[in-house]
Design goal:
Structural class: alpha/beta
Strand order of the largest sheet: 5-4-3-8-9
Largest sheet: 5 strands, mixed
Helix content: 40-55%
Radius of gyration: 30 Å
Shape: globular
Distance between the termini: 58 Å
Order of helices and strands: HHEEHHHHEEEHEHHEHHEEHHHHHHHHH
Amino acid sequence: MPLPENIDGLSPAELKLLVVQLLEEMADLRRTVAAQRDEIARLKGGPPRPKIKPNSQPSGMEQATDPKPPGGANERRRRGSTRAKLTINEERKVKLEAPPPDARFKGYTSFVVQELVLHSHVIDFQCERWLTADGKVITAPLPEGFDRHFGPQLRRFVLAQYHQGQTTVPRLLALLRGFGIDISKRELVRLLTADHDRFHEEAREVLRAGLASAAWVTVDDTGARHKAHNGFCTQIGNAHFTAFATTTSKSRLNFLSLLRAGHDDYVVNDAALAYMRERALVGPVIARLAEHPDRHFADQAAWTAHLEKLGIAALKVNPDPVLIATEGALWGSVKYHGFLRQGVIVSDDAGQFNVGQHGLCWVHAERLVHKLDTFTEQNRAAQASVRAAIWQLYSDLKAYRCAPIAQRKADLEAAFDRIFTGKTGFVTLDRLLARLHANKAELLKVLERPEIPLHTNGSENDIRCHVTRRKVSGGTRSDRGRDARDTFLGLAKTCTKLGINFWSYLGARLNIHSAAVPPLPSLIFARAQSP
């Protein structure tokens, strides 16, 4: 910022404002220098600057506003009978070697032990061969589930250990060899990545069922290296399902493509045209698209050819007509396939997620206030006061979700305005509050849709398994590996939400036992329709 020519002529209030602005610039410069030091250390191959947590406690708004459980924190929950949950597979009689001669037999006492049996089991299938009268040789087929040299139980164990147990390939390979399994690293990687079409198809249907039945979804993304290049993994889910997709972009165009759930078409319908108007696409372009008889395009090549035919691709105006028209056609495809009919997308305010009916996460909004740099006692007092008011409003919004009342809605809107339009004297905080007030409609989306969550904690919890996989194993090297990781992590999370044991799910899909696990999409629809 430029310094005033005559500092001596400034009033005390102007001097105070100048000091605050200089302190803010100093804090920004310190962050920039720290980032540059980390980058220099990385380029030199040295360790980065250690991350030291601040002394202040992290935001606990969600936990602090939860109602306290009845009975107090010291009340212990009873476990219940362990034996009642177990199935006895074997009974062994244990005899006393030399009972006393005057002792009488009084029956048995039970002592239940849970054991795990792990060992190599090699099967040599002797398949009958028959020669027909016309000279053809007929061979008896292998039993169901045995279609390669590694059986379904082994494949089940490998998938569960790698994706649910987050084991690395080298450790899993050493574990299998320790059990006596003769397997190479190449064969193990093939078990993890190849011939999983049935799982990829079910994962795609899970996303479609979730988007078609959802009253709301929460979304998030995180970094994901693929083929030695930076990429992004996007999470989409709610209380009934989770889906992951790794791509090279995190743009709104990419997000809209993911919302099509595997469909490749582009559709110009009322939803698409409304989207284009909201994004300020020029009227003549919208008119060309609306008046043309072709409205449905099978893939990107057909859509691009259509834009070139109408002369839209050659236009050089702002906003980019090709980009906005393409986003609109993608949104039209989402609606055409019945996804997110009335569903609300709740996000952390990342721009690419702002489509359709959109709500914002209160935890992320309060975190901006919590992390604000303070320099004086007055600053810290103003920050604490605003945070306390936000926590109280958040608690009231949680109560409103349980019992929506029209009069209460008006009171909450008034309380929101009081908090986010007030003046604290802390200039940076006041600017932040004004920026948050501009998001009033999205932060208070819960007032018109009480069923939606107030935060994206579910997405952050879901995507943590992807972050763990990245930290443990780094990036993926092949498209098959990337797709397998996204598919199985999503299926494992979905099984947990539906109350299905992932081990049992793998067993049912690999035809190991007769206990059937219904298709996950059907369970998602059933959960969404239940009260």
